[in-house]
Amino acid sequence: MTAKILDGRKISKEIKQNIITETENLEKEYGIKPGLAVVIVGEDEASSVYVSMKAKACKNVGFHSETYNLPQDTSQKELIQLIGKLNNDAKIHGILVQLPLPKGFDENLVNSHILPSKDIDGFHAINAGNLMLGEDGYIPCTPKGIIELIKRTGTDISGKHAVVIGRSNIVGKPVGILLLRENATVTICHSRTNNLAEHTKNADIIVAAVGIPKLIKGDMIKEGAIIIDAGTRKVDEKLVGDVDYDEAVNKASWITPVPGGVGPMTITMLLLNTLESAKKSCASVR
Hints:
- Helices cover 41% and strands 16% of the residues.
- It has helices at residues 8-30, 45-61, 76-87, 107-112, 125-133, 141-152, 172-181, 196-200, 245-248, 262-281; strands at 4-5, 35-41, 64-70, 94-97, 161-165, 185-189, 205-208, 226-229, 233-235, 238-240, 254-255.
- A hairpin with a 2-residue loop joins β9 (233-235) and β10.
């Protein structure tokens, strides 16, 4: 068996076409253009690249975007004051504070100051709680993109055994909850899990999100499983995922490449969440 490729770039392009159409309609009917503000503190190279990619993505779909590059010595109080200003800015429908923040910042505290209605990253405690309860709220972008990728295979998630490797608040935990909401049987594995292969060998769906290059080998994968690789690390200047792609591609039914799989979907889901926020803001206009 040779796996089919879940091309995140291609799928993202299709979704963005719909975003462009909805954005044009929103502006035509209500005079509202979705607005995203991205805040970065310090000069982390990887973060700067991500921020520029998000700004470019906004421009390509017709969004209004603002980027705030704050110096390394910015205080937590100053950052929170900026968030307060953006909370009150009608042009801004989504606020994203690029992580990681410099040492000394309390990331949870900072995110708690973003209005839940503008928390398009889904990190605010209210949105996290809504996710757990199955209520309406913003879903973290990477997990949202992962579920979309799985659904694009045409597979019915209900009743499947899904193994999630990783328990971060950004990917592992929320994607596990989303899979439960789709009626999968979910096993969460992590650094303290004994005999990882025993779990992965029985999985119909594997979501790997730990950032350990080629952790998942071909002999750890059930024939015909769906493999979603959300881990990335640079090895010899090349991006490598958590899954040994060359081995897994001969066992899986579907697999995401690294790069070009989960990554493009994350930014597209960010755009979708921002569009959703803008549409909700129209309720007062109707």
